[in-house]
Amino acid sequence: MVEAYYHDNEEGDYTLPHKGDPLSLQELEKIGVFYKYINNQTELNTIASNRNYKNRDQVEIVESSFPSKEAFHSKLNIFYAEHYHDDEEIRYVTSGHGYFDVRSPQDSWIRISLSAGDLIILPPGIYHRFTLTSSMYVQATRLFKDQPKWEAWNRDLGRVSEARKEYVDFIAAKQ
Ligand code: KMT
Ligand code: NI
């Protein structure tokens, strides 16, 4: 079941829920984040073809699929570093659980809790991060238009691309 809420901003184990005030899916749409529950592959195919996504892959993020505990944790740290992409990020959770954190217009963290059947679309240019939950397991389909391009621009780089500018303008127009 999807759930969206503000992150409590407490430090510590980032796989814990960190639950703050709740937020509706309509509020997410206002910042360009779309959510949909999908219970069959046909619906996923429709979304992919409507948006011109030709390719996809399946990822399983669990310690046992990494060569070492260190490799697993370094991957989790990469996912959890705040970043944006110049393209949309579409993820469909097929098993397990994950948290996507996205920045609100006021720069607070909004946490979106996802499990099997949950599809999320993050717009180009939105700052976000991902973590496993305390279940420490997720399996997801990643959609991409052409070749996989997972270029991430971490916030500490301060880079402002065209996609980032467009997203900032989109948010500003709504205020
Ligand atoms: C990402 O880009 O953060 C990921 O692919 C995370 C795993 S997909 C649920
Ligand atoms: Ni990302």
Q: Describe it for me?
A:
By secondary structure, the chain is of the alpha+beta class. The chain is 23% helix and 36% strand. It has four helices and eleven strands, in the order ββαβαβαβββββββα. A hairpin with a 5-residue loop joins β6 (89-103) and β7 (109-115). It is globular and about 45 Å long. The mean pLDDT is 96. Nickel (II) ion binds at residues 83, 85, 89, 128, 152.
Question: How are the SSEs placed, and which strands pair?
Answer:
Elements: E1 3-7, E2 19-22, H1 25-30, E3 34-37, H2 41-50, E4 55-61, H3 69-80, E5 83-84, E6 89-103, E7 109-115, E8 118-122, E9 128-132, E10 138-144, E11 153-154, H4 162-174
Antiparallel strand pairs: 1-2, 1-7, 3-8, 4-10, 5-11, 6-7, 6-8, 6-9, 6-10
The structure holds 4-(methylsulfanyl)-2-oxobutanoic acid (KMT) and nickel (II) ion.
Largest sheet: 9 strands, antiparallel
Rg estimate, integer Å: 16 Å
Q: Count every helix, treating DSSP H or I runs of 4 or more residues as helices.
A: 4
The whole-number mean of residue pLDDT values reads 96
Separation of termini?
Answer: 30 Å
Helical amount: 10-25%
Strands, total number: 11
Low-confidence stretches: none
What is the global morphology?
Answer: globular
Ligands bound, unique: 4-(methylsulfanyl)-2-oxobutanoic acid, nickel (II) ion
Derived structural class: alpha+beta
Order of helices and strands: EEHEHEHEEEEEEEH
Strand content of the residues, in percent? 35-45%
Describe the structure concisely for a colleague.
Helices cover 23% and strands 36% of the residues.
